[in-house]
Amino acid sequence: MSMPETVRLPTAAEVEAARANIVGVARRTPLWRLDVDIPGVRIHLKLENLQPLGSFKIRAAVNAIKAVGEDAVRGGIVSASAGNFGLGLAHAARRIGAPVTIVVPDGSAATKGAALEALGARVIRVPFDDWWQVLTTRRFDGAEGVFFHPVAESAVVAGNATIGAELLEDLDAFDTVIVPFGGGGLVSGIGSVMRRERPATRMMVVESQASQPAAAALAAGRPTTVKHDQSFVDGMGSTTVLEAMWPLVRETVDEALCVSFAEIAAAIRLLAVKHHIITEGAGAAALAAAMSGRAGEGDIVCIISGGNIDASKLGAILNGQDPF
């Protein structure tokens, strides 16, 4: 098992190194203008759901493995993941023949667990509180190998920052970036690029009614424990902002927004029916925030973080039924 590190924001050189590390595995995803008529608002979608395995997490996973070196992980890889980071690790590990164990919370999407097993990963389902304990201790009894944290590692944040570098090249100017908040690794990565290159950009995180740890931490000036409910929005939300991530979140986040399950479902439905884009709950949350009007006006970039949603839940949403 690996020991915790002091997580920090990546330098410009580290972001460029991460971009080189993920070439040939992760995809440079398109930035797509949403066809909706909202006065004063232009919404741009960064379609990370089009990544191999359907999530931005492949960027972080590949860069994290490259950072420690492939030889160091051939004996085994361990992680705790709601699914998408684990998929990225399993995909990268399969290329080098390393065994993988992924501990997942019992409320995570079944489609993610099945995809992990299809890639040869050992999947261990545990209650959410036990899963969160693995995230904080970085260990799970009976699983041997190098532990990769899905959020609290500098190489993970640098891998996520490659999204920010692409945004700078794809759009000359934008006012706001909205990022779904799980543990803070995605917003810290993208936010590090914006703070350095376009400091006037507003960085917003979006949370669901299931839990709002980022909003609580920003209001209190420190990580605060909040209630977390299981929901179909399984790719984001927790009981608190990890202490290791709080300095990065504090530096890169301007505001936290909350959207309802109904607003997220409506965003999923809009993307699927009108634009033929399939997203999971966390993936559509940024769009839900932009559509609500609470993110303000101007050019708004929404990070569509992933598309791995259970077919039964997607079907319920498309039929106007309650998936939550």
Compose a concise summary of this entry.
The chain has 324 residues and is α/β, with parallel strands linked by helices.
Series of secondary-structure elements, N-terminal to C-terminal: HEEHHEHEHEHEHEHEHHEHHEH
User: Which of globular, elongated, flat, extended, rod-shaped describes the shape?
Assistant: globular
Helix amount, in percent? 40-55%
Q: What fraction of the residues are assigned to beta strands by DSSP?
A: 15-25%
Mean pLDDT: 93
Helix count, per DSSP? 13
Q: Give the strand tally.
A: 10
Level-2 CATH architecture of the largest domain: 3-Layer(aba) Sandwich
CATH topology of the largest domain: Rossmann fold
What does it look like?
It is a single chain. By secondary structure, the protein is an alpha/beta fold. The chain folds into two domains: 27-55 and 158-318, Rossmann fold (3-Layer(aba) Sandwich); 58-147, Rossmann fold, CATH 3.40.50.1100. Helices cover 43% and strands 16% of the residues. It contains 13 helices and ten strands. A six-stranded mixed β-sheet has the order 1-2-10-7-8-9, sandwiched between helices. 55% of the residues are buried.
Secondary-structure topology with pairs:
Layout lengths: L11 H11 L8 E3 L7 E7 L9 H12 L1 H4 L3 E4 L3 H13 L3 E6 L4 H9 L3 E5 L1 H10 L8 E2 L6 H17 L5 E5 L4 H13 L4 E7 L4 H8 L25 H7 L2 E5 L1 H15 L5 H12 L5 E7 L6 H8 L6
Parallel strand pairs: 2-10, 3-4, 3-6, 4-5, 7-8, 7-10, 8-9
Antiparallel strand pairs: 1-2
